[in-house]
Design brief:
Helices cover 47% and strands 13% of the residues. It is built from nine helices and five strands; from the N terminus they run E-H-H-E-H-E-H-H-E-H-E-H-H-H. The protein has a five-stranded parallel β-sheet, with helices on both faces.
């Protein structure tokens, strides 16, 4: 294996345009310190599944052997504004996964923390998105990581403030947990 492509939202992006190596300062950068491969960070702040779908083909020009995806949390406000329907999300997500399954792939399912309080209204939609993503990944036999469960368990060890800055974005420790979870899935499956 020579290269790994990372797709997603701000959790993947993590300031990549402001870092000398283009990897950002989050989990992708932490993985680059562990892996002897070329890592390509194509995460974009604010991206939804439809945004990833729109850029997907151009991102594949780097010819990766493995594609990693973390997307879904930015879709929640759109779904809430549109009356709770997941149709457009599901179609965009399935398009991405149908393409990703042509490669080796690791998908991280989205997550939220319990603070600030307004994120509690997002949880219903988060669970629906997680279930949708999980079902689509299983349909295409794509490996996925249940990050919401992992972070929920880590909150028994750490205070949420140690893991997240705002209930969505991660601290250095949060990114370490994300990177370790990804690395564990990678070493077991590939």
């Amino acid at each position: 294996m020579e290269s790994i492509l990372f797709l997603g939202d701000s959790l993947t992006d993590c300031g990549r345009f402001y870092s000398d190596d283009g990897l950002g300062h989050g989990y992708v950068k932490l993985l680059a310190e562990k892996l002897p491969y070329r890592l390509i960070n194509e995460g974009f702040d604010g991206f939804t599944a439809a945004d990833v779908k729109r850029r997907f083909e151009s991102c594949l020009k780097c010819e990766p052997e493995l594609v990693s995806l973390l997307v879904g949390v930015n879709d929640i406000p759109l779904i809430m504004r549109n009356g709770g329907g997941l149709d457009s999300f599901s179609k965009a997500y399935e398009y991405i996964i149908a393409k990703i399954c042509e490669y080796k792939a690791i998908v991280m399912l989205p997550f939220l923390f319990t603070r600030p309080a307004e994120l509690l209204t997002w949880r219903k939609y988060l669970y629906e998105i997680i279930e949708t993503e999980k079902n689509i990944c299983e349909k295409y036999n794509v490996k996925y990581i249940q990050m919401n469960n992992i972070f929920k368990n880590k909150c028994h060890i750490y205070n949420e403030n140690e893991l997240t800055t705002d209930g969505i974005h991660l601290t250095r420790l949060g990114h370490s947990i994300l990177a370790d979870s990804w690395y564990d899935a990678f070493t077991v499956g590939f």
